[in-house]
Amino acid sequence: MSETASNPTALAPRSVALAQPPKELTLRPVEGMAKWLGPFARFAMRLVSMVEQPLENMSGPLSPVKGYFRRDRHRHPRVDPETYALRVTGVARPRSFTLAELRELPWEERVLVMECAGNGNHVMGSAGLVGQARWSGPSLATVLEACGGPGEATHFAFRGLDPVPLVRRGYHYGLSMQELDQARALLALEMNGEPLPRPRGFPVRMVVPGIYSMSHVKWLGHIEGKTAPHMGIHNRWVFTNKERRDGKWVRVQARWIGLKSMITRCQRIDGGWRLTGWAWGGGKELDRVEITTDGGQSWRTATLHPPGEYFGGELPPESFEHAWSVFDFHWRDAEAGSHLLASRAFATDGTAQLMDEDPEVKGHFNQTRVKWREVDVPG
Ligand SMILES: Nc1nc2c(c(=O)[nH]1)N[C@H]1C(S)=C(S)[C@@H](COP(=O)(O)O)O[C@H]1N2
Ligand SMILES: [Mo]
User: For a Cys staple, 324 with which of 1, 54, 56, 280, CB 3.0–4.6 Å?
Assistant: First the structure.
């Protein structure tokens, strides 16, 4: 009798899989909802209108329009481009802009990381509420100039046209003139060279490079100049942490994206596996990314591809100063079994991505510490 006939399980799918190792391995979060719910975490997050990027989009310099992450208050309004008007108030000369008027202003193009302030926090465990795209449209400075300047305004509130369930008014978020100037905020009408898709905020959204994306207000309907900080619910409560300062816990609003990195994929290549990911944030020049494949006992340097490598030929450096760097690492010595992986980013001034949670900070936002992932390498 042949071996197969005497052992019917020899041809079961499991043994076939072992003979042909998979092309890509799953990187499992080791904490939070994603650890406990596994694939159901995606479903649970969808219920609260959080949709992460799919795995196939989680590498390389640009996120495609299709599959871009989503985070909003459930409703995507349908805005008629013919009757659309953007109101600007509280400035030297309050006025409205039609879409045609916004199109006629000079445009800028920027490439940047857009990241939800709660991305990859310890509750979620996963970290796909992040994307990178090319956004273009007039800068906020250009729009304000067309209104005779900011006038008395020192702060701005940006209001969306989406109804917020139970509250009914649109989503809104505020920043100071100084923050908006520093970020060189823009009003995006296009994403990756296409008109803004409806889920991304058609016809106009705010884009604030370097600041977490709760401020990138979609379906923008109203820019309100103010003489004091906007203290709406999203500024005051929703996107805040508590920080201990001089022994006292104070509430702080999410703002500038912190220094971080994350391994996003593990793909089979000749002679082992290729770990890829992104490093971004911190507002400083990136020096290197280190990788551990043994739970932090040893660290090795990954190959870094700064954004200039991808965009430098087409765009001036200031257009991609808040873009992520892609990194990859050839994992040659991967032995069969389970491994704990992580990446850690370092800036040129010596700042490093935190290993542990900062005991002086409580909350779900701006979580920058190293993200651990578990992977099973087949034999
Ligand atoms: N009008 C409006 N803009 C919004 C939101 C919203 O609910 N309504 N959500 C904000 C939050 S919290 C995030 S993280 C980003 C997500 O942008 P995206 O859905 O295009 O990825 O949009 C921001 N802008
Ligand atoms: Mo967000």
Answer: 280
